[in-house]
Amino acid sequence: MHAYQKPTREKPDNGTSLVTFTLLLTAPAVLAAAALRPRSRSGTRGGRGGRRG
């Protein structure tokens, strides 16, 4: 049997966890998508199609 060896690539010890790193990447993208999303007009329901007739 082989003795257990540590993986060659160790986690960098800079204090940033994977969860924090992921949130830092995704949060700006989500906020930008929400900001750029077209807003529905106050008089229409559903936001698409508008008035017909």
Q: In angstroms, what separates the terminal alpha carbons? A: 80 Å
Rg from Cα: 24 Å
The overall average pLDDT, rounded, is 77
Q: Which shape, going by the Cα principal axes? A: rod-shaped
Strand content: under 5%
Structural class: mainly alpha
Question: Ranges with pLDDT <50 over ≥5 residues?
Answer: none
Helical proportion, percent range: 25-40%
Helix-strand pattern? H
Note the quaternary state here: single chain
Put simply, the count of helices is 1
Tell how many strands the DSSP assignment holds.
0
Sheet with most strands: none
Write up what this structure looks like.
By secondary structure, the chain is mainly alpha-helical. 36% of the residues lie in helices and 0% in strands. It is rod-shaped and about 75 Å long. The chain starts with 17 loop residues before the first helix and ends in a 17-residue tail after the last helix.
Secondary-structure blueprint:
Layout: H1 18-36
Keywords:
53 residues; mainly alpha; 1 helix
Compact summary:
The protein contains 1 helix and no strands.
